[in-house]
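Per your request, structure below.
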């Protein structure tokens, strides 16, 4: 095992004892009023050839995360494309598209991490186990820093779904 992208859901279940299941995440989802800036930006992005995961991350996902940060009084920091080598023996190494952590003003990835986001080109089946492995690494990372969160969120997106 060498990186997050090598994980499968079966391997995550057997190695970490985490059960794979579908469940409702939220009871109520409120609509958010997006800024004109984000709407204009996404309209421009729609006109461009977004063919790679990197392009999706930059043109769609990152602006949405910035918007969410602004709507939440800059409570969190967005780390983009950082290496997140938490435990080589467990295979919890590699790059994360985005890591969301409480804003401490730190240049380095800081704890507590509470969400990871993986932008996949077209294949959720590849993104879900990779994101799950990154979530496990986030929990271990937080614990090593003396912070134990009850919940860590993860997200896989194609930029359209």
């Amino acid at each position: 095992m060498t990186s997050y992208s090598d994980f499968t859901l079966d391997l995550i279940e057997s190695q970490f004892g985490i059960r794979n299941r579908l469940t409702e995440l939220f009871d109520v989802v409120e609509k958010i009023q997006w800024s004109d800036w984000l709407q204009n930006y996404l309209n421009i992005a729609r006109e461009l050839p977004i063919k790679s995961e990197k392009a999706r991350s930059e043109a769609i996902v990152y602006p949405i995360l910035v918007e969410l940060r602004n709507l939440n009084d800059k409570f969190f920091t967005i780390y983009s494309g950082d290496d997140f080598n938490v435990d080589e023996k467990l295979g919890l190494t590699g790059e994360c598209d985005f890591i969301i952590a409480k804003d401490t003003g730190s240049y380095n990835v800081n704890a507590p991490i509470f969400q990871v986001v993986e932008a996949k080109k077209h294949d959720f089946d590849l993104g879900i186990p990779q994101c799950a492995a990154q979530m496990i690494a986030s929990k271990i990372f937080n614990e090593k820093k003396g912070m134990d969160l009850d919940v860590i969120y993860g997200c896989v997106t194609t930029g359209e779904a």
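The chain is about 35% helix and 15% strand.

Regards,
D.
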